[in-house]
Specification:
This protein is α/β, with parallel strands linked by helices and 475 residues long. The protein contains 17 helices and 16 strands. It is 35% helix and 14% strand. It starts with 18 loop residues before the first helix and ends in an 11-residue tail after the last helix. The protein binds adenosine monophosphate (AMP). The site of adenosine monophosphate has 17 residues, from helix 3. Adenosine monophosphate binds next to helix 3. It is an enzyme of class 3 (hydrolase). Keywords: ATP-binding, Cytoplasm, Helicase, Hydrolase, Nucleotide-binding. One of its GO terms (molecular function) is hydrolase activity.
Length: 475
């Protein structure tokens, strides 16, 4: 990833953006465009299709939102008639959290204009979304499954979409959204501008671009599968049983005020969150078993600084933008090395420096090898002197302390325990599927059928590296 601090010579006022947009940019506190903004804004303004290699954290949202708002200003209307507010720009994202964040940004950037925007995603009641859509919006941010639900309910008409953004397109394919994307693309006017953003350009992404983009301009601010240069990476070899003590110690010693702690399974996320709470760390967990409302609440509390450690699975954390996050901790190394790049992209954002700490148990060394192969560099090994070990004994699914506070019953020697097996949690390979909300059950059954389970990691990795065609399970 290129350094978002690398200051391009021209400022925002050099793009010819309307003063209402410049005012909003100033309200956000942005003084200089980031490299992706410097490159993309003029191209999007010129109406060209874009194939952008940029991760979340580079300022990519503004790089497409600002010129979209500029291009739509000619249609801004204060009329209350819904007919005067058709959907003209559609922004598709893989996850609800990312949709919500993009929508927040768009709302901010368009706040001084008469353009309307809204966001629709699954897991919440459709009725409020229907009301918003019926009022009319020019800019619609959506996850694919819920958008198709609205199309089916005829609450939205995509016949006047002039600009389509596919945000985190690689993730959308990973999550099995290709059939939904194809359905949506068939509903859009052929003559339109299409902007595709992706952290990686796999063969599948190139195929998607070849089918739906017209003569795109390629913009690349992140080296393929590179890791952020302003992120300091380190790996500690820690026994599985000592990982939790390591997290607590790192939080204290490093003065890491806030971290996202990544785990590979939702069960592991819940358990670790409970344990960290007991260790006195204010913690919340976000994963697929949490309702949308709970996830939003946890995220908001984290953003407000009320939570020190947000324990998250990859799918739940995808695309999260949390400003100035000082660090991430990989409690489990990801099975899919590509997720490592996404995880550590949560820190060192917008030019801030960050620490990416990985805890590697002996059983996980093979994952580390894969990660280093992918990022084409060795991650420095660190030494961690644990002041306390946190070995605990799980019996009948219950953690048992030995009575004295702060000390934990030792586990039996390794030889008498079953070998640690990486948690096989199929949910990890699936996108978030909310429990059907009662009032919206029928709709949610459809929404939860949104993405099918992605491929096993080996195939995924091979496909990311261009080795095999990445077939989606719903092909
Ligand atoms: P994004 O990659 O769009 O998720 O943006 C990452 C973060 O950078 C967000 O918190 C943005 O508000 C912030 N950001 C975007 N553009 C700029 C800029 N030109 N200057 C400073 N911060 C920015």
């Amino acid at each position: 990833m290129s350094d978002v601090n690398a200051v391009p010579t021209a400022g925002f006022d050099s793009f010819g953006l309307h003063s209402d947009i410049l005012r909003a940019v100033a309200d956000q506190g942005y003084t200089q465009p980031t490299p992706i903004q410097a490159q993309a804004i003029p191209i999007v303004l010129a109406g060209r299709d874009v194939m952008g290699a940029a991760q979340t954290g580079t300022g990519k949202t503004a790089s497409f939102s600002l010129p979209i708002i500029q291009r739509l200003l000619a249609h801004a209307s204060t009329s209350t008639s819904p007919a005067r507010h058709p959907v003209r720009a559609l922004i598709l994202t893989p996850t609800r959290e990312l949709a919500d964040q993009v929508a927040d940004n768009v709302r901010g950037y368009a706040q001084h204009t008469a353009l309307r925007s809204t966001v629709v995603f699954g897991g919440v009641d459709m009725r409020a979304q229907e009301a918003e859509l019926r009022r009319g919006v020019e800019i619609l941010i959506a996850t694919p499954g819920r958008l198709l639900d609205h199309v089916q309910q005829r609450t939205v008409d995509l016949g006047q979409v002039q600009i389509l953004v596919l945000d985190e397109a690689d993730r959308m394919l990973d999550m099995g959204f290709l059939p939904d994307l194809q359905r949506i693309l068939n509903l859009l006017p052929k003559s339109r501008q299409t902007l595709l953003f992706s952290a990686t350009f796999s063969g599948e992404i190139k195929k998607l671009a070849a089918s739906y983009l017209r003569d795109p301009v390629t913009i690349e601010v992140a080296r393929r599968n590179a890791t952020a240069e302003n992120v300091q990476q380190v790996v500690y070899e820690v026994a599985e049983d000592d990982k939790r003590a390591a997290v607590v110690q790192l939080l204290r010693e490093r003065d890491l005020k806030q971290v996202i702690v990544f785990v590979n399974s939702k069960i592991g996320a819940s358990r670790l969150a409970r344990q960290l709470e007991r260790d006195g760390v204010v913690t919340a967990a976000i994963h697929g078993d949490k309702s949308q409302a709970e996830r939003m609440q946890a995220l908001e509390a984290f953003k407000q600084g009320g939570i020190a450690a947000l324990v998250a699975t990859d799918v739940a954390a995808r695309g999260l933008d949390i400003a100035e996050l000082p660090g991430v901790i990989n409690y489990d190394l990801p099975y899919n090395p590509e997720d490592y790049v996404h995880r550590i992209g949560r820190t060192g954002r917008a030019g801030a420096s960050g620490e990416a700490i990985s805890l590697c148990a002996p059983d996980e060394r093979k994952h580390l090898v894969e990660i280093e192969k992918l990022i084409k560099r060795d991650i420095p090994r660190g030494q961690l002197q644990l002041t306390r070990t946190s070995a605990y004994h799980e019996r009948d699914g219950e953690e048992r302390r030995n009575g004295r506070s702060g000390s934990f019953e030792r586990r039996p020697p390794r030889s008498t325990r079953p070998r640690h097996v990486a948690p096989e949690d199929e949910i990890f390979y699936k996108p978030y599927e909310p429990a059907p909300a009662k009032e919206d059950e029928a709709a949610d059954v459809k929404a939860t059928s949104e993405p099918a389970s992605p491929k096993p990691p080996k195939r995924q990795l091979a496909a990311l590296l261009g080795g095999v065609p990445l077939k989606t399970p719903r092909d």
